[in-house]
């Protein structure tokens, strides 16, 4: 198993998620996002991700920055569409600025990475910031900082893993989600593979038949269940 190659690929995935889940106004961000999608599309995690990458590429070709910005605003900020929480605290404590934010602040303070408050004004347990933190920890591990690998695993176990399935599920079924529905497919497959890589189990529901939390108001188009089939051969998980 080529651990370095796998970590480089993981960092790119986390970086893409961070870019698409954080508020952005700079049109130059689109070029980086498109290039990242093009790179990852060359070696997708599974058939579902392959199709999702193709759909994302086509949507960006046809709609560009305007499409991405408008859908992001509608999905995450519009009061006229379904509400999707974006912090670990809200998903796990039904409120923003909760204990999970404090936990995440402590993880950040234990690392060499700091939140740039000029560029990122959201809370530390915002899903976009968590993805960015994970990317930075992998990059530091690649530079020889072994502590970063342990911090990443702790954040995954204690912060990201408990709520990410509900976030992805809500994103997937949001009535105005098109580009972001494709992102949800890719995130679902990636998280499944990340759990295998980090040897972390999917959190158990209180009841076996308990459905994921849903924050959407209505379903305007049919949604197939998310059924990822991630590659278990980590040698293939490279750029």
UniProtKB/TrEMBL annotation:
Compositional bias ranges of the Basic residues kind: 218-231
InterPro entries: DMSO/NO3_reduct_chaperone, TorD-like_sf, TorD/DmsD_chaperones
Superkingdom assignment: Bacteria
Keyword annotations: Chaperone
Any one Pfam family match given in the protein's UniProt record, by short name: Nitrate_red_del
Renumbered residue ranges of the record's region Disordered: 209-232
Protein name: Formate dehydrogenase-specific chaperone FdhX
Organism this protein belongs to: Sulfurospirillum multivorans (Dehalospirillum multivorans)
């Amino acid at each position: 198993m080529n651990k370095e190659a796998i970590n480089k690929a993981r960092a790119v995935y986390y970086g893409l998620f961070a870019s698409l889940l954080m508020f952005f106004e700079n049109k130059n961000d689109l070029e980086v996002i498109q290039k990242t999608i093009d790179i990852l599309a060359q070696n997708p995690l599974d058939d579902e991700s392959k199709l999702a990458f193709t759909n994302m590429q086509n949507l960006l070709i046809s709609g560009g920055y305007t499409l991405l910005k408008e859908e992001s605003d509608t999905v995450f900020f519009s009061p006229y569409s379904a509400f999707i929480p974006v912090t670990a605290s809200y998903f796990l404590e039904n409120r923003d600025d909760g204990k999970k934010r404090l936990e995440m602040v402590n993880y950040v303070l234990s690392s060499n990475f700091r939140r740039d408050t000029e560029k990122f004004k959201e809370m530390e347990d915002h899903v976009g910031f968590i993805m960015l933190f994970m990317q930075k920890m992998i990059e530091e591990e690649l530079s020889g900082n072994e502590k970063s690998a342990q911090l990443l695993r702790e954040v995954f176990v204690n912060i990201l893993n408990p709520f990410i399935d509900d976030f992805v599920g809500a994103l997937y079924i949001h009535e105005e989600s098109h580009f972001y529905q494709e992102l949800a497919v890719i995130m679902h497959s990636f998280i499944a593979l990340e759990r295998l890589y980090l040897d972390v189990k999917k959190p158990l529901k209180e009841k076996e038949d308990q459905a994921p939390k849903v924050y959407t108001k209505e379903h305007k188009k049919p949604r197939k269940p998310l059924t990822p089939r991630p590659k278990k051969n980590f040698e293939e998980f490279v750029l």
